[in-house]
Amino acid sequence: MARPVVVLEALAVRAQPTGVGGGSLELVRALAARERDCDFVVIAGDVRPFAWLEDVAGWRVLGAGGSGSAAREWARLATVPRVCRESGAALLHALQPVSPWRAPCPLVLTVHDLAWRALPGVIAQPRRAWLGAVVPPSLASARLLLANSRATAAALATHFPAYAAKVREVPHGTPTWALAMTPVAPCEAPARPFFLFVGTLEPRKNLPRLLDAYERLLGQAGGQAPDLRLVGPGGWAMDPLKERLARPALQGRVTVSGWVPTEELARLYRDALALVFPSLDEGFGLPILEAMACGLPVLTSDRGAMAEVAGVDALLVDPLDVDGLARAMQRLAADGPFRARLAAAGPARAAMWTWARTADLTTAAYAEIMRGGAGR
């Protein structure tokens, strides 16, 4: 008897996966790491990150047929339904909350966040309008909605209460490469200490306030203050960030890098004094756990998924309080024993969040649908 086929829509995965793409790749690795009662077809935005699946039985990878947003949307609307029909798919799992207009089989969606609804000013137009047009009907058509954190599940219940019965908490995990790292010794610091931010340089990450807080720290500590390094690809609405970076007080103290490969990112996590990640909204917060796994103290926001992921093992601050951010950075810079405590607690916290659990909860959702236990 043929095994059921699950089609995974992984169009967010690019050659340099971050965020949703990186999480999608981690889930696929976890699903492929053990025996499952189904076969898989992956439809990827870029097939290169999935090259390792060529020798894995029961897995097939198809490319989207082009690059760019137009190609991805055509793949979502035409290629994905066609592959589902041709493979006789038992279900389609879209690894982001956007589905084809009509899925020819039961649909599961992974929901990463609802920032476009909760904090619309931090999402660029026309993307915000596009999400507002396509996400609600996608949520309505899905049999189950897999929330990547308790915070995302709560946001779904708040903004889409009619679908609360379809929501399942399926938390993400710490990236496997980070869990494989050996943490540095507590308080081991480079010759010139620096704070580290990791993430897309966009309004949701609250970088203007972070820079305002850092400038206040410089005003208090001067040359004794650590430097600040911003690592990540450029996003939208960069002008306010560039204006702050141009301030004389920040010259020579703040450096900006683009996307860096895992090996370089691991070195930065090892060498930094602390991660500063005061984002306004996150669906999960992978940099928090990457840093913790590497034994790096973390400063992050006292809200949503960031507080959920970090727990008591990070320094939590109100991301809207610039003075509070400055004080928190000053404490991390000056209090070695406090940094040592956070550094020692981080690896155990990161180890709590595993992609194996994510894969198990995901396949439990598949089984629920295949048994007919999930409704619309």
Textual characterization of the structure:
By secondary structure, the chain is an alpha/beta fold. It folds into 2 domains: 5-173 and 354-370, Glycogen Phosphorylase B (Rossmann fold), CATH 3.40.50; 177-351, Glycogen Phosphorylase B (Rossmann fold, 3-Layer(aba) Sandwich). Helices cover 42% and strands 15% of the residues. It has 14 helices and 13 strands. It has helices at 19-32, 69-87, 115-118, 127-141, 150-159, 176-179, 207-221, 239-245, 262-271, 286-293, 304-310, 322-334, 336-351, 355-370; strands spanning 5-10, 39-44, 59-63, 91-94, 107-111, 144-147, 167-169, 194-198, 227-231, 254-257, 274-277, 298-301, 315-317. It has a 7-stranded parallel beta sheet, sandwiched between helices. Helix 7 (207-221) links the parallel strand 8 and strand 9. Helix 1 crosses helix 14, helix 7 packs parallel to helix 8 (239-245) and helix 7 (207-221) packs across helix 12. The protein is globular and about 70 Å long.
Number of domains: 2
**Arithmetic mean pLDDT:** 92
Oligomer: single chain
CATH class of the largest domain: Alpha Beta
Number of helices: 14
- Can you list the strand order of the major beta sheet? 3-2-1-4-5-6-7
The H-level CATH homologous superfamily of the largest domain, spelled out, is Glycogen Phosphorylase B
Q: What's the overall geometry?
A: globular
Q: Tally of extended strands? A: 13
Secondary-structure element series: EHEEHEEHHEHEHEHEHEHEHEHEHHH
- Secondary-structure-derived class: alpha/beta
Give the N-terminus to C-terminus distance in angstroms: 29 Å
Question: What is the fold named in CATH at topology level of the largest domain?
Answer: Rossmann fold
Largest sheet: 7 strands, parallel
CATH architecture of the largest domain: 3-Layer(aba) Sandwich
Fraction in helix: 40-55%
Low-pLDDT runs: none
Strand content: 15-25%
Rg (C-alpha, Å): 21 Å
